[in-house]
Specification:
316 residues, mainly alpha, ABC transporter involved in vitamin B12 uptake, BtuC, two-stranded antiparallel sheet
């Protein structure tokens, strides 16, 4: 009897996100006429690339046992920089946007590793601070891109699939390889599993954490650039205030533990698809936007409780 119970528990823990997706597809497919169409699923993947790219960086940090709640505004800053720079030099704008993400990651990582500040507090402060920086940069105005090539890039499709989706899938493979087959990936899991053991085994913990913050900031900036290419316009309120928490919800729904040490890239992708599917379902059912906020909060709460009850994990 105990063996059966343990087997069921292991199956549910391993395939929870897949079961959730199956149920959601069945329910939304039955409730809405066009949900199961090919065009709808292609659009679903297109809408997922923004959260999906940021989730890769946030997931790496969370596996390491650290948080980044500033990715929403890092993404927004990069998007605003590149759109404003299309008035002058688009390539320079892309470079500056990526640099802005790397710089935010460096600052967050420095505060966490060298100043030994709490990662939740540091990145939450960064999120609020960047929101102010964006309003100063944009003059509190929306901007439209003036580069035809940049606009066309955002609408290119290969075999019927948006180039933005292809970029996301390529990054998924790169990050999956990085975590599974490289020394940096192994050290990331080791730090998240047991920080004291990682230190005693000679792992340069601060360096690994700092690298992951830089990767996270760079990924958020890239997501902002691709979002800007897709929309060819930005507003100073882009990404505020929900995106960072939505991305974190995607990651933990995909099975990455909040205490660190475990998680798979494929499951992060499925977590992103699940969250975007929920948001899309709410829109297709013509529900008010506050239902989306309520759903995100409930999902995050349920995940935290299930980790405590089922896995005996604690989150402090």
């Amino acid at each position: 009897m105990h063996l059966v119970a343990d087997s069921i528990k292991k199956f549910c823990k391993a395939y929870t996100i897949i079961l959730i997706l199956i149920v959601m597809i069945a329910v939304l497919g039955g409730c809405t006429e066009h949900f199961l169409s090919v065009d709808n699923f292609l659009n679903l993947f297109l809408q997922s690339n923004l959260y999906g790219i940021m989730a890769l960086g946030v997931g790496m940090l969370l596996i390491c046992g650290y948080f980044d709640l500033s990715v929403g505004m890092t993404m927004s800053l990069a998007a605003n920089i590149v759109i404003i720079m299309t008035h002058y030099n688009t390539l320079l704008g892309v470079a500056l946007a990526i640099l802005s993400g790397v710089l935010v990651g460096l600052i967050n990582g420095f505060c966490v590793t060298k100043l030994k500040l709490n990662s939740l507090v540091v990145t939450l402060v960064a999120e609020v601070g960047l929101h102010g920086v964006i309003f100063l940069l944009t003059g509190a105005k929306s901007h439209i891109g003036e580069s035809y090539g940049f606009k066309i890039f955002g609408s290119v499709a290969i075999f019927g699939v948006s180039i933005l989706t292809w970029i996301w899938l390529l990054l998924v493979m790169i990050v999956s390889f990085l975590l599974k087959y490289t020394e940096h990936g192994r050290m990331t899991y080791a730090i998240g599993s047991n920080l004291a053991t990682a230190v005693n085994s000679g792992i340069q913990v601060d360096r690994v954490i700092l690298k992951n913050y830089v990767i996270c900031g760079g990924a958020a900036a890239l997501a902002g650039i691709l979002q800007a290419a897709r929309l060819n316009s930005v507003s100073p309120g882009l990404g505020w205030p929900d995106v960072s928490m939505d991305v974190l919800t995607c990651v933990v729904l995909g099975g990455v533990k909040m205490k660190g040490g475990s998680g798979k890239v494929l499951h992060m992708v499925l977590g992103v698809l699940a969250i975007i599917m929920i948001q899309k379902g709410i829109n297709m059912l013509n529900l008010q936007s506050y239902w989306k906020t309520l759903a995100m909060g409930l999902i995050l709460l349920i995940i935290i409780i299930s980790d405590k009850v089922v896995s005996k994990d604690t989150f402090v």
